[in-house]
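2024-03-11 09:14:02 DEBUG pipeline.ingest accepted 1 chain
2024-03-11 09:14:02 DEBUG pipeline.ingest length=335
2024-03-11 09:14:03 DEBUG pipeline.predict start
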Amino acid sequence: MLNAIGAICLALARRFRRGGVIVNEHVLDRQQTRRHVDVLSRSFDFIHLDDLPRQLGRRGKRPFCLLTFDDGKRSNATVVAPELERLGIPAVFFVVSSSIDDQMPLWFDRYRALRKKLGVAPNGMSLQILKQLPYASLVQRIEHACLHYGIDADLCDENVGLMSWEQLRQLHRRGFSIGAHGHIHAILTRENQCAAFENIEKSIAKITEQIEEPCSSFAFPNGNYSPELAHHAIRCGARTVMTTEPTWVDKSFPLWRLPRLQIFGDDTAGKIRLKAAVAATGLILKNPDGTGHAYRTINRITRLHVRRKPLETDVQHVVTKSHAGTEAEGHVGLD
C-alpha cells in the first residue's frame, strides 16, 4: 500500500515540480545501495556534482538526483562505491578530515555504542542535550561516559571505522566527488565564529591537499548553518554548500544553501518514494538538524527575492533565529 501511494504521489510531484533532489545518505550495504538506486532511477536522472549548477536552471523531461554520502565511513569505499561504480552512478562523499587523520570514531558512533550497551542514554546525555553543547564539551562528556562504563565504538566495524586518505584518493581517481564535512564533526552554530571558520577552512584545505584538486563542496555537520558560515565556505573555495533542509532544489536556491533529503538504509521503496514526493512541497518533512519547519520561512524569503539579489540581512535574521532553537523541536538525527 505504501509503495503504491508513494509512486502516485511522486508521479504528481514530478509533473508539477521543477528541479530535483540532492539525496543525503550515510552507510548502506550492497543490497540497500541497489534498492535505493533502483527506486530513485525510476523517477530521476542521476547527475554528477559538476553538473548541478546548470541543472538547477534547466527544465528537463525528468527531475535530477544527486547522491551524497556523509561522514566518510570505510564501508562507503569498500561497499557503496564499488556498487555505484558497477551501476554507473556518480556520487559525492563528504568526509571529516581530522577523523581520517587520527582514525578515531566520530562522537555519535561512541554515543550509539553507549546507548546500545546500556539500553538508555547516560544521565544528562540525551541527544537533545548533547547537541546544544560546544564540540569540546560534547566530546568530553562522551569520553567520560565511555571510560566510566568501559564502552567504546568498534573501529573494526566498517560502518564505524573511517576510510583512509588512500581510499579517498582512489575514489577521486575513479570519478567520484570528494567534499568537506568539517575538520571535526562539530555543530558549527554551537561554536564561536572564529572556531567555526577555522573548522571549515581546515577541512576544505586538507581535502584539496590530499586529492590534489580544489575541494569544491562543503556539507554542514548535522545540517546547522548560518549565512556567514556558508559564505565563508564559498570564500574557502567551495562552489556548493549543502544543508539538510528536506525539500527539492531548483534555481530559487542559492549555491550556498542547497537542501538535501535524508534517506536511510532500511527505508523501503515505498518510503523512499513517499519521502521524495512530500519533499516536493517543501512543507511537510521536518529538518533533521532539529529546527523543525523553520526552513519554510527561509524558503519564502529567498523566493521573494529570486529575481534580484537576496536580502541577505532578512535571510540571516531568520536563519540565525531558527538555528538557535533546540533539537527537541524536531526529529533529531545523528549526522
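2024-03-11 09:14:41 DEBUG pipeline.report The chain has one domain: 2-103+155-329.
2024-03-11 09:14:41 DEBUG pipeline.predict end
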